[in-house]
Amino acid sequence: MMNNSDAVTVRGLRVRRGRTEVFDGLDLTIPRGEITGLLGPSGCGKSTLMRAIVGVQKVAGGEVTVLGEPAGSPRLRRRVGYDTQAASVYGDLTVRQNLAYFARVVSAPRADVERVLGQVGLRAQADQRVSDLSGGQLNRASLAVAMLGTPELIVLDEPTVGLDPLLRAELWEVFRGLADAGATLLVSSHVMDEALRCDRLLLMRAGRIVADTDPDRLLADTGESDPDAAFLAIVRRDDVAHTGGAHPRSRREARGEERS
């Protein structure tokens, strides 16, 4: 059953990729009006989970309910924004042209173009071609597309990857502003210091949620002073609880050999 205070409910989610079982009965909920951080090493299943929530991932079983509707329902088209790892904009168009095009796709009002340009700080670059933008500006342009139509749920897959600390901080200010305005954000990252900017944390490893917590509790429960050390402490606990030693996938995750 989905609580009205939850934006997303996942029950018994099963996803297979070839012979690999990415999820084997995953359960979780994401509350409304907060920034939920989905954190973990490359290959742990973050992107696969986000695709399942958006409704573009083939699943082998289970249920994913988003804003009271089955994931991927046409009724969610205007209510859910999705920013993938790869930039979702056309390089040969200007920022404004991209936004005008995608605004028509999602039936967003014309005024949304100027609104999101201001929110992501790209008014000065509005008439530049996307191919001429810096990496940080490109990420902002892609984020602006996901914000068109004022979605209730915004799913952001590693939106700050490859950015310097200043640009990451600026984007997190945008995320916080969206949440303060009432949106629900699900933001994935493998940069653990970003955990401290979230309201709630889901720490993922090898297709499992190994901790459902918040920044203060994460540090307090592990007795660590920084999120990297705290996550390692959670991993060690997980090893002991499940295998009595090193998890068989942990070495591959650390090297980022598997991407999901």
Overview of this structure, please?
- It is a single chain.
- With about 260 residues, the chain is an alpha/beta fold.
- It has a domain at about 5-80 and about 150-255: P-loop containing nucleotide triphosphate hydrolases (Rossmann fold, 3-Layer(aba) Sandwich).
- The chain is built from 8 helices and 10 strands.
- It has helices at about 45-55, 95-105, 110-120, 135-145, 165-180, 215-220, 225-240, 250-255, and strands at about 5-15, 20-30, 35-40, 60-65, 70, 80-85, 155, 185-190, 200-205, 210-215.
- A hairpin with a 2-residue loop joins strand 4 (about 60-65) and strand 5.
- The radius of gyration is 18 Å and the shape is globular.
- The two termini are about 30 Å apart.
- About 40% of the residues are buried.
Question: Helix-strand pattern, N to C?
Answer: EEEHEEEHHHEHEEEHHH
**Given the C-alpha coordinates, what overall shape results?**
globular
Strand content: 15-25%
State the CATH architecture of the domain at 6-79 and 151-255.
3-Layer(aba) Sandwich
Query: What is the helix fraction of residues, given as a range?
Result: 25-40%
Task: Tally the helices.
Answer: 8
Largest beta sheet, briefly?
6 strands, mixed
Mean pLDDT: 89
> What is the strand tally?
10
- Reading off the top of the CATH hierarchy, the class of the domain at 6-79 and 151-255 is best stated as Alpha Beta
**Which fold does the CATH topology of the domain at 6-79 and 151-255 refer to?**
Rossmann fold
Structural class call reads alpha/beta
Strand order of the largest sheet: 6-7-8-3-9-10
* CATH superfamily membership of the domain at 6-79 and 151-255: P-loop containing nucleotide triphosphate hydrolases
**Radius of gyration from the CA trace?**
18 Å
Poorly predicted segments: 246-259
Intertermini distance: 28 Å
